[in-house]
Every structure is written in structure tokens, then in C-alpha cells.
């Protein structure tokens, strides 16, 4: 069996995931990137978006909030504000979250207090809907 990559996903509340995998695809601060065993070490920000993990030729999808990724040749550690497994996403609730965030943003400017938090809610709702469609 080929070597596998250890992936750990941690939020402030819990260890969400810890297992060896073939590949993880991360919504990085500079764009999406994939990590396989032997990847060059990097430290990256993570944007709200869709994360997927490949193990045994099967992909598992997650909607993730912002955070950080530390990549070494054999391990990926993701420190994230929020993580929701695609199969646990309530699409109706995510649509409501998206609609509320869009409405809030339409009444705000970038300079308004709370703008970045509302924008993060919008991105997370979009990620939930995208991931849920693949569950």
C-alpha cells in the first residue's frame, strides 16, 4: 500500500477529522490547492469554501470557514473556524443564510462595521450549498 497523508481538521470546539488519506483539496487564500503525500511544506490561509478529501477513490466534501493550513510532506493540519460535513448540511437553512447575508450586504459598504463578518457568512453559505450538492 502506498504511503498516505495524515489530515487533521480542528475547530476551536473539536477535532473534526483525523485520518490518513490520498489527497486533500483546500480553498486556500491564494486559490484552491491540492495536497498529496510528499508535498512541499507550506503555511497558507484558508478561505471559506469547499474542502474535499479523497480516500479509497471516494471523495468526502466539507464546507469550511476561514482559517489556516500547515502542510508538511506527510501531514496537513487545518485550523478552521467552522467545518460542516456535506452530508450534514441542511440546504434550506443554507439558502436562508445566503439570502440573509445577501440582504445585509446590500445595505452595507465595505467600510461599515461588521461588513467582513457578513461577507464571511455569505461565503460560508455558498460553500455549504456547493458541498451539499455533492453529498
Task: Explain briefly what this protein structure is.
With 135 residues, this protein is of the alpha+beta class.
Can you offer a commentary on this structure?
The protein is α+β, with helices and mostly antiparallel strands and 135 residues long. The protein has 2 domains: 5-86, F0F1 ATP synthase delta/epsilon subunit, N-terminal (ATP Synthase, domain 1, Sandwich); 89-132. The chain has 2 helices and 10 strands. The strands form 2 sheets. A 5-stranded mixed β-sheet has the order 2-1-9-8-5, with no helix packed on it. A 5-stranded antiparallel β-sheet has the order 4-3-6-7-10, with helices on one face. A hairpin with a 3-residue loop joins strand 8 (67-71) and strand 9 (75-80). The longest helix is centred in the last third of the chain and has 18 residues, at 115-132. 27% of the residues are buried. The model has no long low-confidence stretch (mean pLDDT 94).
| Radius of gyration from CA coordinates | 16 Å
Please give the domain count: 2
CATH homologous group name of the largest domain? F0F1 ATP synthase delta/epsilon subunit, N-terminal
Order of helices and strands: EEEEEEEEEEHH
CATH domain topology of the largest domain? ATP Synthase, domain 1
Arithmetic mean of pLDDT: 94
Distance between the termini: 27 Å
Give the CATH class of the largest domain. Answer: Mainly Beta
Low confidence ranges: none
Q: Approximately what portion of the residues adopt beta-strand conformation?
A: 35-45%
Largest sheet, order of strands side by side?
Answer: 2-1-9-8-5
What is the CATH architecture term of the largest domain? Sandwich
- Count of runs of 4 or more consecutive helical residues: 2
Helicity range of the residues?
25-40%
Q: Summarize the biggest pleated sheet.
A: 5 strands, mixed
Number of strands: 10
Characterize the overall form: globular
Amino acid at each position: 500500500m502506498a504511503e498516505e497523508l495524515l489530515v487533521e481538521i480542528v475547530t476551536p470546539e473539536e477535532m473534526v477529522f483525523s485520518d490518513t488519506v490520498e489527497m486533500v483539496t483546500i480553498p486556500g487564500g491564494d486559490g484552491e490547492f491540492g495536497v498529496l503525500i510528499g508535498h512541499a511544506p507550506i503555511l497558507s490561509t484558508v478561505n471559506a469554501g469547499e474542502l474535499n478529501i479523497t480516500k479509497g477513490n471516494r471523495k468526502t466534501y466539507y464546507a469550511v470557514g476561514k482559517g489556516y493550513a500547515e502542510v508538511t510532506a506527510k501531514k496537513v493540519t487545518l485550523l478552521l473556524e467552522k467545518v460542516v460535513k456535506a452530508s450534514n448540511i441542511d440546504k434550506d437553512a443554507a439558502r436562508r443564510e445566503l439570502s440573509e447575508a445577501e440582504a445585509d450586504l446590500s445595505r452595507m459598504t465595505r467600510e461599515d462595521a461588521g461588513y467582513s463578518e457578513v461577507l464571511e457568512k455569505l461565503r460560508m453559505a455558498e460553500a455549504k450549498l456547493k458541498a451539499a450538492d455533492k453529498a
